Amino acid sequence: MAEEYEAVLCVKPAVHVYRVPPRASNRGYRAAEWQLDQPAWSGRLRITAKGKTAFIKLEDKTSGELFAQAPVEQFPGIAVESVTDSSRYFVIRIEDGNGRRAFIGVGFVDRGDAFDFNVALQDHFKWVKQQHELAKQAENPDQAPKLDLGFKEGQTIKLNIANMKKKEGAAGSTRPRPAGPGGLSLLPPPPGGKSSTAALSSGEQLPSSLPPSVQLPGTPITDSLLSWPQPTAAPSAPATDVWGDFKASGSDSKQTQANAGWVQF
Question: Is residue 68 within 8 Å of 104, Cβ to Cβ?
């Protein structure tokens, strides 16, 4: 077994030691009976731990010389007791190593130091208890509590699959677009409008006079989509035309070519 080392748990620089009168009954110690204005000794307090035992050491502030030491094997216990009338004073049982013991009073100047003194002892013995339980479980692993993850009789669980339904609905809402003439897909008609596929299915034909260059593949053209301007009729020649039959044929041919680009509806 490895040699145990000594750990420092708490250090308080100012502490007073008082003589404790014999306790006449079991009602507890009272700090008011100690002559608090006349401490028997003043110095520093240091709590150390070696293995399971904690040691309360009273030392000189300057030289560090040990004044008294109180081994603590259990807390709370007889080695350290609180007084009944204050939270800054305690009664500890000191030992000199030769079997002699005595009870003395210890008081802290600051209430926070007394709190730290108490917590340091509590934490140490809490750790001792945990180590004892771990060692017991290591010796008897079969007796350790087992984690039961099975369902009890009549026990049920509920799964929230609302998000899954939304995703499935969004994926199933995509429908293929209807294909128009030429294999191209058509956009759905606007609300209240008539689709071009319905017009084609009713037997209507595209105007035959539409040039192939104007009719786009896969996009039927109706009167509601295109409004081509109508060509204006050429003014008729007056009866008293001075040119008569000598009109330029070139102007008629140009006018005819210009009108050929217009679509007649």
Answer: yes
| Residue range 34-89, pLDDT digits in tens | 989 899 999 999 999 998 999 999 999 889 899 999 999 988 888 999 998 899 99
3-state secondary structure of 172: helix
pLDDT digits (tens, 9 = 90+) for 79-94: 999 998 899 999 999 9
Is residue 41 within 8 A of residue 76, CB to CB? The reply is no
Residue 15, Cβ density class (10 Å: 0-12 exposed, 13-18 middle, ≥19 buried): buried
> Which of 66, 64, 63 minimizes the C-alpha distance to 55?
66
Contact 6, 12 (CB under 8 A): no
Could you give the CA distance from residue 106 to residue 40 in angstroms, rounded to a whole number?
10
**Rg of the chain (C-alpha set):** 54
Cα→Cα distances 39→27, 34, 114, Å: 23, 8, 17
Which residue has tokens 């309360």?
56
Give the global pTM.
0.52
Cα of first residue to Cα of last residue in the chain, in angstroms, is 111
